[in-house]
Amino acid sequence: MRVKFKKLNPEAKLPVYGHPGEDAGLDLFSLEDAEIKSGERKLFALGFALEFEPGFAAIVKDKGGPPMKYGLHTMGGVFDSGFRGEYNVLLINLSQETAIIKKGQKIAQLIIYPVAIAQLEEVVELDDTSSRGTGQHGSTGEF
């Protein structure tokens, strides 16, 4: 799949696969040094825009290291194929310590997924033959 990359900031780093051909996600890099205190959120502009074909979405996900080492978690981050603005990463610090981010550090990953485009149909009743039915949280018992 071909994805077009446009730098919006001269210091922006091209997202890269750490292990090309094996990794699902493209590494995303911070453009700035930053501190995120416990419980705080921080939006990191990435300095680039992408273009890819319809039927796909680019979704920001956690990398393995930042949540484990720093308690950082990504929030939101669904970029549709029609979006041409600057990509960003919203991080929240779930640890009790201040997280230190260095310019150029990997902060998240971007995975490009195929998506089904739903055609919604309003109905009066839904099929009730599923085993779950209207069961919500805990419907299968203890976790």
Task: Produce the secondary structure layout.
Elements: E1 4-7, E2 26-29, E3 34-36, E4 41-45, E5 48-51, E6 56-61, H1 65-70, E7 72-75, E8 78-80, E9 88-93, E10 99-101, E11 106-114
Antiparallel strand pairs: 1-5, 2-11, 3-10, 4-9, 6-8, 6-11, 7-9
User: What is the H-and-E element order?
Assistant: EEEEEEHEEEEE
**Rg over alpha carbons:** 19 Å
Quote the average pLDDT: 92
Beta-strand share of residues? 35-45%
Instruction: Give the strand order of the largest sheet, numbering strands 1, 2, ... along the chain.
Output: 2-11-6-8
Helix % is under 10%
* Number of discrete helical segments: 1
Structural class: mainly beta
Instruction: Give the overall form.
Output: globular
Domain module tally? 1
- In CATH, the homologous superfamily goes by the name Deoxyuridine triphosphatase (dUTPase)
Terminal CA distance = 39 Å
Label the CATH architecture: Distorted Sandwich
Low-confidence stretches: none
Keywords:
143 residues; mainly beta; Deoxyuridine 5'-Triphosphate Nucleotidohydrolase, Chain A; four-stranded antiparallel beta sheet; three-stranded antiparallel beta sheet; 11 strands; 4% helix
